[in-house]
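Dear colleague,

Following up on Tuesday's group meeting, I ran the structure prediction for the two-component complex that the binding team flagged. I've pasted the input sequences exactly as they went in, so you can double-check that nothing got truncated or mislabelled along the way. The structure tokens for the whole assembly follow below. Feel free to forward this to whoever is handling the docking comparison.

Inputs:
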Amino acid sequence: MRRLLAGLAVGSLMVAASACGSSDSGSSDKSSSSGGGTTTVKVGIIPIVDVAPIYLGQKQGFYSKRGLKLEMTTAQGGAAIVPGVVSGQFQFGFSNMTSLMIAQSQNVPVKAVANGIASTGVDGKDFGALTVKKDSPIKSAKDLEGKKVAVNTLKNINETAVRESVRKAGGDPSKVKFVELAFDQMPAALDGGQIDAAMVVEPALATVKSQGAVEIASSLVDVAKDLTVAMYFTSTQYEQQNPELVKKFQEATAESLAYADSHPDEAREIVTTYTKIPAAVLANVVLPKWPAEPNRASIEALMKLGEEDGLFKTTPDLDKLLP
Amino acid sequence: MKGLNAALGAAGLAAFLALGEAVPRLGLVKEDYFPPTSRIAEALWRELKDEVFWTALGDTLTGWALGLAIAVTAGILAGVVISVVPHLREATASTIEFLRPIPSVALIPLAVLLYGTELRSVLLLVVYASFWQILIQVLYGVQDVDPVADETARSYGLGTWARTRHVLWPTALPYVMTGVRLAAAVALILTVTAELVIGAPGLGKNIGIAQASQAVPEMYALLVVTGLLGLLINVGARTVERRVLAWHQSVRGEVAV
């Protein structure tokens, strides 16, 4: 008994000591530069195909030649990334445009710094699609009135996109029943008939297609031509305090995006290093476009549609948000 | 008796695995979403050969062990102090009952704000969830102290420390060990959940990546690993419990039967 008590006491001391130790080292190497002018920055990302360029760029040395060392921090969704960046746990993050505009309109201090991904802009060949089950009676987005449509997050970019597809097909989007479902659960739900349609992106889209599902609209293409879907961002505070560093990140990311866009095979290859997408699925995945610059006109279109759907309390200030 | 129990346990598991093989094979559920046991086993074998898996397992075990150690230490200390110091029990009772039902996972946004996706985020959730298991058991245990024994010790002139050491602690220990066993299981669940949701390194994060990657057999393989971990932890906790309480009548009685 005495030994147990003594052991517990020693254990707690060690825990306390190691906790202090890790917090010290954690804060010292977080944003301050160490030694030979290399700065380590943490980037909050979602481990999906979209962020392949940043991994590729790191492998190609686009960041290290500018004195940046990236430490990828993966999160399940954007929900953990925005608070992480704003609180300074990560220096940069990856988020879709609607989430960024919602944050900006609520005065959350975020600043987009580099382009993330864009839709391919090709109808029927995009990385995201509005799909229905094989042999479904639903033939166009107009038929979705009164039907259950799954989107990954309600009141966000994919809901906006589906609403626009319904509108363009001559339907009334307010009659569509939206339900929230994670992308990876959509194939089973669609197949099992729990939902009538799903707005799904890669790699789940490849799975859905392999089951013979039918694409009734390329909703992201319906929003705007070459829609900027997501961007890398930082906090306004970090941007003001480290303008040089942000500029370097911007340049390196632009180079990485251009490289990934022109080397799709290498981009596909690097995805296997940070995801578990099976080779057979990866081969069928439609890659997004990775233009080096965001497309402001498309973001404005996305914002207008978002306003129409009541996503923002106040109009987002794109001049403040965009680089 | 013990051998029979083990045999029954193995038979039950074998039947379960066979069912897992048969249900998708018979087409009752789609193989794509619920792979048969053999495909999960294949994926598990691939995982075992992968260095990434072992690093993740290490991270998960670290989070579990550290979290549990902190929770056990803090729970015992807080429990004993609350019981020994006059009126402290009454003063803290409502606060404890207020805090205890708050689900640990509800603290995830707070954890991310404070610590990002580091180990400390995981620890925050694990300690919060398992601390109460220990504390409540300690409080119950102290309540079980025989007043006659306590008064006897008092009349023999034993001080607070000596009474805590010789009367309170032996009485409370069986309760504490129950608390440790419960906390060990809760700590594992919370470690994996935190990794899954926050993205801190570990098995949970790998489960999340497998989910997002449409790698269904790999996802189930990792779930099997967490299940096995839970089983091992439970067996281990029971063994420790028996060793520590070897003198106690509950354990001695068990052996005699």
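The longest helix of chain A spans residues 2-28.

Cheers,
M.
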